[in-house]
Amino acid sequence: MLATVPSDIAQVSYSLGIMKIETDTYGTVLMHGRLINGYAATVRHLPAQHLSIAATANRSNADVDSIAAAILAVVWATP
Fold first, then answer.
1. In this structure, how many other beta carbons lie within 10 angstroms of the beta carbon of residue 5?
2. Could you tell me the residue range of the domain that residue 48 belongs to?
3. Is the overall model pTM greater than 0.70, yes or no?
4. Mind listing the pLDDT tens digit of every residue in the chain (79 residues)?
5. Which of 5, 20, 25, 76 is the 20 to 30 A CA-CA neighbour of 65?
6. Distance (Å, rounded) from C-alpha 73 to C-alpha 79?
7. Is-contact 32 19, C-beta < 8 A?
8. Rounded Cα distance, 49 and 35, in Å
9. What are the DSSP E strand ranges found in the chain?
10. 3-class SS of residue 8
11. How many domains, in total, are found in the chain?
């Protein structure tokens, strides 16, 4: 499931519903997101840090990716 193939976007590869991004700040980030029936959800997993973050909203147009990124930035900055 985590065996990815390159995408058209630099540093991004994709597998069976999982996107893998290589970042300078966090290292490898595994992601999955979904919009369905009025809900939005996303999850981020940082394997090297043993850290997972999920964000959900009961609006399909909610920007859960920005919410997850903001949570990750706060957690990352916490000593």
1. 8
2. 5-77
3. yes
4. 778 888 888 888 888 788 999 999 889 999 998 888 889 999 999 999 999 999 999 998 899 999 999 999 898 887 6
5. 5
6. 12
7. yes
8. 27
9. 5-6, 12-14, 19-23, 27-36, 39-46, 51-57
10. coil
11. 1
